[in-house]
Design a protein that fits this description.
98 residues; three-stranded parallel sheet; 4 helices; globular
């Protein structure tokens, strides 16, 4: 059976960097508890979550993987920190579904 390919994507800023790295480490350990999952990459944009997703270089790399079907799942510390724009988040979800 093929493993579920997971990428971790988190936008970071000076205020959330330390807190998120602790959550990321915890998330990685949790994912590694399941042999059917494999973390194939970690992507971090140093920006505010108010920056549009299309303006984040590391998020664009994640989307390249999604568009080429090289990734099955994206993990993030919280949807709250993924994007502050509902429109951006919904556009990303639509792309994931396609």
């Amino acid at each position: 059976m093929d493993k579920c390919r997971v990428v971790i994507y988190v936008p970071l800023n000076e205020q959330t960097k330390v807190k998120h790295f602790e959550k990321i480490e915890s998330m990685e350990k949790e994912i590694q508890n399941y042999p059917e999952y494999e973390i194939i990459g970690k992507f971090f944009d140093e920006c505010s979550t108010t920056i549009p997703l299309n303006d984040r270089p590391e998020f664009q790399k994640v989307m390249e993987k999604v568009n080429t079907l090289a990734v099955d799942m994206i993990a993030t510390v919280s949807m709250k920190y993924f994007s502050r724009s509902v429109e951006d988040t919904m556009a990303a979800v639509k792309t994931f579904q396609e």
